[in-house]
């Protein structure tokens, strides 16, 4: 109980401080306005999206119910595609598997991944003697500033351009003005060299098709395409809840995800199913062409199977990580990702309880949530977060 009390005290102190941060207030206000306007415009432009979201809810429900069979099929498909597939039952196993593939003294370029945050992947690989670079612009900013993400899609949403300019001026040892285009350009130049000298590229995946072993990754910056295509080794770490039966279903999940993530059409949709290959000489398939020679997929459980077994909470596994619920959350609007541990806001409290810290870490979050239901209204999967929050409160109080 003493530990739980300390958890509440530390969290409350941090949350109160965040609520008074003018940078957060300014940035989130702008982001909420932009998100609502752009998403409304997108859904108006593509009016079939809500109906497709309903179909995707069925796909996700069926996939979670048959996850063990789909996991085996997906792993077999990856192996058939000349990749290597592994199953990690928990965080430590996932980290050790990754480290065994990579070794030490390597340069690694990494795409944005909430699973990576859940595992503390970059920090672990750095401790093993590797040089690891976040390649998503927002994650790169946070890496330099030694901060955690404040939103699952826009991790540095709370950092204004003036602060970014200060960070970059110090890191690059040259004057970088508070001009967004110039800030982007200086990172582009720096990371471009890293992509083509890196030993390993690491990514997550938005969805996995069990029948083909295809990993589908949505992005806008082009960093994932370079991180997964330039280095000789590509490692995917993906949660087992991301698996769906077929490629056709995977694309439906992908489309709904990007629409509710504020994009009419994303900059890139990457489909990766194995190491690079060519059949241009005598139609003989040869692996290791211009892209990676080695391809590894680590399917991570880390509490997801336990969540799936609990009828009251399994619906949380339907989450597409679109991030829309956070912009509607009244608490998130004044505290950003400080209303969270690794995962944020109400849905983040549920994920924290099962995969990212346990009930002790989740306890302050479940009593911060207002259970107002605005997240449910925005959520394409209509996940009943308020109901799950109430049940977690009962567990905290009653044990």
What would your notes on this structure say?
With 399 residues, the protein is an alpha/beta fold. It has 2 domains: 2-45 and 310-398, Orthogonal Bundle (Fumarate Reductase Iron-sulfur Protein, Chain B, domain 2), CATH 1.10.1060; 51-302, NagB/RpiA/CoA transferase-like (Rossmann fold), CATH 3.40.50. It is built from 19 helices and 12 strands. The protein has helices at residues 2-19, 22-45, 49-65, 67-80, 91-102, 114-119, 121-127, 137-145, 161-172, 180-197, 223-229, 247-260, 304-309, 324-328, 332-335, 345-355, 358-366, 374-378, 385-398, and strands at residues 84-88, 107-110, 131-134, 200-203, 207-209, 214-219, 233-239, 243-244, 268-272, 277-278, 286-287, 294-300. The strands form 3 sheets. A 6-stranded parallel β-sheet has the order 1-12-7-4-2-3, with helices on both faces. β5 (207-209) and β6 form a beta hairpin. α3 crosses α12, α16 runs antiparallel to α17 (358-366) and α16 (345-355) packs across α19 (385-398). The radius of gyration is 21 Å and the shape is globular. The protein starts with a helix and ends with a helix.
